Amino acid sequence: MSGFWIILTAILVSSACALLGTFLVLRKMAMVGDAISHAVLPGIAIAFLISGRESLWILAGATAFGLIAVFLIQMLQGGGLSSDASIGIVFTALFAAGVILISLNAQNIDLDLDHVLFGEIAYVQWDQLALGGVDVGPRAVWMLGITLFVIMVLLTLFYKQFKICSFDPALAAASGIPVALFHYLLMGMVSMTSVASFDSVGAILVVGMLIVPAATAYLLTDRLGIMLTYSVLIGAASSVAGYYMAFLLDASIAGCMVASAGGLFVLAFLFSPLHGVLVRRLLRGRGSREVRL
């Protein structure tokens, strides 16, 4: 039964990350996910100081600091800094602030930095959620399930708006779509997913699941709807394969999940019918032979 909960948690994490990662990759904002996943640390620390382990406070604090990070990145870019420099400055500064807060209040916060950064999905089954004195399953499964449900509802309701904003922000603005609102809504969902995933895979590995499945799907199709489906399937397949790889190698489950996703990306990068390196080279060679003939 423990394996079931681990795999289910992994699939929930990868699915939520894959859906959001698709839009981050299309917007060329993949590393913003990295910035947000680190920048939420001071929000988590402050929420711990205020409320202890109250999940809603932690979620609110993390989401708020994720949005603050996005606002600061946008402000620095507007001031003339490049995108990569803005991201690097903001996420390192906020992450350092979170580390300082935790180190200064270590006696009041039972928050392990290694746990936040790397996570341990094998332990999710031990933190059970009790309703009416009855255990109803791991707390992480419920939190991630609710997070995934919210993401799916929002993306379904505003699919057209997110699509237009991702491909042509100027057209979206001309059509009366509030581009900034949907930008910050997407960033808010990334923040919420990052903190909901901390207990299972940690901040660093959230970045991998945000980027790699979506980047793999990007190589396989040119249609957004299919890309979203492929991203979720690739994330789920990576989760299952990563679990069994970790079982065989006696290694980190979360690490094997991302390694599996990386392996699928390499296969797509080489053999994708649309963008595969080897396929393009083969087609160029065939075209050259036809020209010579």
TrEMBL record:
Record keywords: Cell membrane, Membrane, Transmembrane, Transmembrane helix, Transport
Record's subcellular location: Cell membrane
Membrane topology: Multi-pass membrane protein
One Pfam family this sequence matches: ABC-3
First-listed, main subcellular location of the protein, grouped into a coarse class: membrane
Segments traversing the membrane: 6-25, 32-50, 56-73, 85-104, 140-159, 171-195, 201-220, 227-246, 252-279
InterPro entries named in the record: ABC_BtuC-like (IPR037294), ABC_TroCD (IPR001626)
Family from the record: Belongs to the ABC-3 integral membrane protein family.
Name by which UniProt lists this protein: Metal ABC transporter permease
Organism of derivation: Paenibacillus polygoni
Classification lineage: Bacteria, Bacillati, Bacillota, Bacilli, Bacillales
